Each structure stands twice: as structure tokens, then as C-alpha cells.
Amino acid sequence: MQRTKLTIQQRAELEAVMRKRHGNAALVRRARCVVLWSDGERRVHIRTKLACNDAFVSKWTAAFEAQGLAGLVSVHPGRAPKIPTAKLEARVLNRTLKHKP
Questions:
Q1: 94 lies in a domain?
Q2: In this protein, which residues make up the domain named Insertion element IS150 protein InsJ-like helix-turn-helix (predicted)?
Q3: Is residue 92 in some structural domain?
């Protein structure tokens, strides 16, 4: 993979992410990976510093090159919200009508 130089603005954004005290630790790790990669660090050193593997370095540097900072945010599919069923609603209503709090 060819290394691309970060612009001043990109570097500033990544460093801001890394400086946050109450940020997402995974996002900070990914940002640090991209900065180290663009600074010319070898994969061996990045793996050692971040305790990661080659796939991690490849995945997040490619994601950053394709989408910028937004590419470093991991999107988990999640699941649909659980909608209470009519049976459960009937049980709750019955319980509240029969028992006082």
C-alpha cells in the first residue's frame, strides 16, 4: 500500500481526536495508526506500539484514504428496537390495575 502524506488539516483533525480525554478509545487507536503510517513508520513498529496486526493497519489506513476521518468510525449493524407485544402490554396493564404501587 502506498503511503499518502497527510494535509495540515487532516493531521490537525487526527491529533485532535488523539488528544480528547473522553473520546472513543478505538477511534483514537485508529487515528494514531494512520498518523504513524503517514509518518513513515514501518508496520512492525506500528504493530508493536498499538498491539495490533497487519490487517488492522491495512484496514484503517485504507478507510482513511477513502473516506477521511469518517472512515475511521466503525459502524456496527446493531439490531432493530424491541417492540413490546400486545401480550406483554396486557400483562403490565393487568398488574398495574390489580396492585397498588
A1: no
A2: 29-79
A3: no
- Say how far apart CA 8 and CA 31 lie, in whole Å: 15
Q: Find out whether 29 and 50 touch, Cβ atoms under 8 Å.
A: yes
- Domain containing 13: what range? 8-72
| Cell 446493531 found at | 78
Contact 50, 33 (CB under 8 A): yes
Count Cβ atoms within 10 A of the Cβ of residue 57 and give its class: 0-12 exposed, 13-18 middle, 19 or more buried. buried
pLDDT tens profile 45-89: 999 999 999 999 999 999 999 999 999 998 777 788 788 788 888
Smallest CA-to-CA distance from 50 within 18, 74, 75, 22 is with 18
Residue reference for cell 509518518: 39
Number of residues in the chain:
101
Other CB atoms within a 10 A radius of the CB of residue 10 amount to: 17
Question: What pTM value is reported for the model?
Answer: 0.71
